[in-house]
Each structure stands twice: as structure tokens, then as C-alpha cells.
Write a structure and sequence with these properties.
Elements (H helix, E strand, L loop, with lengths): L1 E6 L11 H4 L5 E4 L5 H11 L3 E3 L9 H4 L11 H6 L7 E2 L3 E11 L6 E9 L2 E2 L7 E2 L1 H10 L1 H11 L5 E4 L18 H10 L3 E4 L12 E4 L2 E5 L2 E6 L10
Parallel strand pairs: 1-2, 2-3, 3-4, 6-9, 7-8, 9-10, 10-12
Antiparallel strand pairs: 1-13, 5-6, 11-12
């Protein structure tokens, strides 16, 4: 399957009337945060393909609709939250382990048909105590809460996970040293333990085409999805292209 990964930037190549022609062979869209949800809506409407999204540390106007215990609602919208079924065409993957049987593929290891296994985590490292920011300890706890579902995947499908979708990057992989853009140490633990084929993240803006955006660590290919990036899954050569 061919996967379109997006994050952090409303890409003119994506946000235009020719998107259906340019990306006619896409099977799945992954949105790694800091994208306006009307942009996600547009992609879903135009491509009509399964789309998963998470939140970053910006563009959080709708965050409370997906996290009713966050305590932050747009003015007067508490009742609107209770009555409405909020969705932006895509499926919110934040802090969830999801199985998509509509995206089944042949597992190279077993030769059997299997659904796509996705886990998602929203947010960034805490740098000013803003919404959807977490300390290292808080994020590790959120990852640990997903472990039972991952173990069920291992028992049922022979593997924990195919794709790990996050906003922030792992520490010392694609991240920066300023307080806002440091990655999470616990993400390194997670990919070593649960061995997803891909980790797709955003948060780190790329202003130079020479900057590294695809790194393989153990069994996992880590991809910075800034603007857009294309992947094929599964494949032997996992470098992808824009």
C-alpha cells in the first residue's frame, strides 16, 4: 500500500484541486500533527481514503472535543461537545492502538493476510506548560497504558505494531536542542521494545533539503513527515520520497 504522510505545513502541492490526480494511488493518509483540521477535512474529502490524525502542540482549537477531560473548551461549547459527534473525516489516533482491517496486506514474514496495526500519540515535550505538552514521565505513562493492547496484537497477529504515529520525535533522532523541539527518551524505549516497521513523526520543520528526515533504528524506519512524504508498505527499501 502507498501511504501519504503529512505534518506541520499546509503544503500547496496537497492543498489544491489537482490532489486527486497527483495522489491517485494513495491507500492511506497519516497526519502527524500541527495541521488545521479543515486541511485534514480537505484531504479526506478529496482522496476519500482512510486517514488517521493526531494533534501536535499547535492548532489545538478542536483538541478538547477529542479530550473531554482536558478542561479547555471554546467559549460556550461545553453543551455542543456533549451533543455533537465530532470528527473531521479522519480517525483520531491519539493515545490509541488501532486495527484497520480495510487496509489488510500480506505479511512478508508469514505470507498471511493481516490488518494494519497503528498506534498514535499526540503532543510534544513540555516547554511552557501549554495544552498537549507532557513531561518525559507523563509520556512514558501514556505509552505504558497502550501495552495491553500491543500484547494482544502480538498474540493475535504475531507482532505488536506496524506504524507508530507521533508528533514529537525520539530523543536524539531528528530532534533539536531547544526546549520546544527535544524528543522523548521513552519513544526510543518504545520502538526498541515493540519494533514498529515505521515511526512517523512531525514537529521538526525542515528548511534545507539536505537535512536528514529518514533514519533506520533497529527494525524501525523513523520518518519526519514535514510537509509531505510518501511511503510504500511493506517494502524492502523503506526510504520513501516526497
Amino acid at each position: 500500500m502507498k501511504i501519504l504522510c503529512l505534518s506541520d505545513y499546509v503544503d500547496p502541492l496537497i492543498y489544491n484541486q489537482n490532489i486527486k490526480q497527483v495522489f491517485s494511488d494513495i491507500d492511506l493518509v497519516l497526519c502527524a500533527g500541527d495541521l488545521p483540521l479543515d486541511y485534514v477535512d480537505f484531504v479526506v474529502t478529496m482522496l476519500n481514503k482512510p486517514t488517521y490524525f493526531i494533534f501536535g502542540n499547535h492548532n489545538l482549537n478542536d483538541f478538547s472535543y477529542y479530550h473531554k477531560n482536558s478542561g479547555v473548551f471554546p467559549a460556550g461549547d461545553e453543551e455542543k461537545y456533549r451533543k455533537a459527534n465530532f470528527g473531521h473525516g479522519g480517525t483520531y489516533a491519539g493515545f490509541k492502538v488501532l486495527t484497520d482491517k480495510s487496509l489488510s496486506y500480506t505479511d512478508p514474514a508469514t505470507g498471511k493476510q493481516t490488518p494494519l496495526l497503528i498506534a498514535g500519540i499526540s503532543g510534544s515535550i513540555q516547554y511552557n506548560k501549554g495544552l498537549n505538552q507532557y513531561t518525559e514521565r507523563q509520556m512514558k505513562f501514556k505509552l505504558l497504558k497502550m501495552v495491553p493492547a500491543l500484547i494482544k496484537n502480538k498474540i493475535k497477529y504475531g507482532r505488536y505494531l506496524d506504524i507508530f504515529l507521533t508528533h514529537a520525535s525520539p530523543r536524539h533522532i531528528h530532534d533539536k536542542e531547544d526546549p520546544c523541539h527535544k524528543g522523548f527518551e521513552c519513544y526510543n524505549w518504545f520502538i526498541q521494545k515493540f519494533k514498529p516497521s515505521y515511526m512517523i513523526h512531525g514537529h521538526i520543520h525542515l528548511y534545507d533539503a539536505r537535512e536528514e528526515r529518514v533514519t533506520k533504528v533497529g527494525d524501525t524506519v523513523i520518518v519526519n513527515a514535514y510537509a509531505h512524504w510518501l511511503l510504500e508498505f511493506p517494502q524492502e527499501n523503506n526510504n520513501g520520497h516526497n
